[in-house]
Design a protein that fits this description.
Elements: H1 6-16, E1 24-30, H2 35-38, E2 51-52, E3 55-56, H3 57-66, E4 71-78, H4 83-91, E5 100-105, H5 110-120, E6 125-130, H6 138-151, E7 153-159, E8 164-170, E9 173-180, E10 186-195, H7 196-208, H8 216-222, E11 228-231, H9 242-255
Parallel strand pairs: 1-4, 1-6, 4-5, 7-11
Antiparallel strand pairs: 2-3, 6-10, 7-10, 8-9
Helix pairs in contact: 5-7, 7-8
Amino acid sequence: MRYLPATLLKQRSILMDSNNSADVSAVILAGGKGTRIASNSSSDIPKQYLEIGGKPVLSYSVDTFSSLPFISEIIVVASREWLNYCNTHVVEPNAGREVNIKLVEGGIDRQESSLNGVKAASAPYVMVHDGARPFVSPDDIRLLYARLLSAGAAILAIPIINTIKEVAETLEGTKIVRTVPRDTLLGAVTPQAFQRDLLIEAHRLAQESNFSGTDDASLLEHMGSDVEVVTGSPANIKITTNEDLVYADFLVRMFNQ
């Protein structure tokens, strides 16, 4: 059953009647430490601040969201120890844009960091994006925005192309339990888009029940609210390993030739 408090239903109706337009705050999470890259690199700089094509990974997301007319502000959420670095290398170089950019301190984990960013948002809708995904396309965000207006909650997801095996550890090693059908599987990516007050309510209920989700959509699932899915481009990769970083840098340089 869909969970949507009456006050939020009324609020959403008012927003939807306003010429089908709404302001969106883009919350870009940049608080991760990128340990998998750090273990294979001489640099201790988190992956979102490493450069591809001559500028930080995080800056690409800022560029993309800044180009969209329905984005009213960008909120970058960074860990306390990297706030100054983020301000100097990402926020200040983009200070001349028409879209206002805010810098917010993150929390102890992704879930708390997301909540900090969403609380700082002033628009009625939010899109929560992973700063380590530099290649999300404006077209995918536009499709997500359209679904957000009609549904109140939606995420981007990409098709699963590999055969998925469920496995189990035994004394002899790792063995296949079964092959999981792919026709009902999609890989969740970001941004994920929500009515702001609905997402805050989902965070509140998650805190009350001590629930920890792997993404923002899982918080709405936990409270019984529907979340719709928009199929996005597989090019929306996440920079996780050093190999991802090298590949991303290659793509940017090839595109700019």
